Amino acid sequence: MSQTIQIKRGTKAELTAFGALLAGEMGFCTDTKEVYVGDGTTNSMVGRALSGTEAARPAAAAMGRLYYVSSGTNNGYLYADDGTVWRRINAQKLTDLTGTLDDISEGATYAKVLKANVTSGNVNKVSDGVNVKTAAEIKTHLDDSTKHRLINDAGLAITDLWSAQKIRNEIELAKHNIEPQASVKDKDLVTPPASPVLADRYLIPAGATGVWASQVNKIAEWNGTAWDLYTPQVGWTCYIDDEQKIFSWNGTAWVRTGGALQTITAGSGLTGGGQADTVTLSVGAGNGIAVAGAAVSAKAGKGVLVNATGIEANIDADSIVYDAANGNRLRVAVIDGGTF
């Protein structure tokens, strides 16, 4: 029967309670599977790396030994004895690593920065993939007081400067209420001009084509590149250049304003009338009736005159007879066929 040798054994807690093993005595922790050797004062786990200061490290001579520097120079480094020298086997700093960051490929959430673009740990250039500017160039531009004083888009003081975009926005807002009061070149042009001049303006009529299609009644203004379209508001007024007339938007249509709007209605015996610039009134059918500057006459000069006084008839009892007995009629006394 073979001989069995058993060393002291128990749980790790029991070993701790037991205390130091005798010098050379071994103990086995049944729960952690650790083996310890005592020296009468402390218990050392078998296989644990030697430790201490680097100066206290023994000379390399037994391959496979490990030594952990616990303080002083190279604190935290672990060395392995290769039989000749102690070789460091762990890394704590990037300088401990061989190779360069160039050996690392770019990832989806990280990227490399060129060494030339880093100064004192800070990236010194910005780029949008095409335009590249250094931090110094950007600072020079921002600090250039001749180009940039205080840009304050919210400021209202006379010394505040607005950005170009802010100024443009303010101009566009102002145009909505100011420009509609200006003139337009035409209100009947259905085809947009082929070569408009900057700021040319038109009222878009029904049946407009091209980019004006379906924009009826809007004001079109050429901005140098495209047509800006303004939807009229009630009260907007435009002077029509080619007609020399003023039209205003009443919410439904552009109507003539700035002149008399009275409707001239023809009365009894008259035809015509209306609101046009020139109104024509026709008297009867024009049979023997003439209209002069100050009077209307029937066969002018023949005894009947219509003027501001009323109707006057020259009755001399010879050529024209007033017959009260027969319904107040006027009769011709003598009808003379005349001579040959």
Labels describing this entry:
four-stranded mixed beta sheet, 340 residues, mainly beta
How would you summarize the topology of this molecule?
Elements: E1 8-10, H1 12-18, E2 26-29, E3 35-38, E4 43-45, E5 50-53, E6 66-71, E7 78-81, E8 86-88, E9 118-119, E10 122-123, E11 125-127, E12 132-134, H2 135-142, H3 164-178, E13 183-184, E14 201-203, E15 219-222, E16 227-230, E17 237-240, E18 245-249, E19 254-257, E20 264-265, E21 270-274, E22 281-283, E23 289-291, E24 296-298, E25 304-307, E26 310-313, E27 320-323, E28 329-332
Parallel strand pairs: 1-2, 5-6, 13-17
Antiparallel strand pairs: 2-3, 3-4, 6-7, 7-8, 9-10, 11-12, 14-15, 15-16, 17-18, 18-19, 20-21, 21-22, 23-24, 24-25, 25-26, 27-28
What does this molecule look like?
The chain has 340 residues and is mainly β. β9 and β10 form a beta hairpin. The mean pLDDT is 80. The relative contact order is 0.04. The strands form nine sheets. The protein has a four-stranded mixed sheet. A four-stranded mixed sheet has the order 5-6-7-8, with no helix packed on it. Among the domains are: 87 residues, no CATH class; 71 residues; 41 residues, no CATH class. It is built from three helices and 28 strands. Helix content is 9%, strand content 29%.
Mean of residue pLDDT? 80
Major sheet size, sense and barrel closure? 4 strands, mixed
Shape: rod-shaped
Spatial strand arrangement across the major sheet: 1-2-3-4
Q: Pairing-aware structural class of the strands and helices?
A: mainly beta
Termini gap: 187 Å
Nearest-angstrom radius of gyration?
Answer: 57 Å
Helix content: under 10%
Percent strand equals: 25-35%
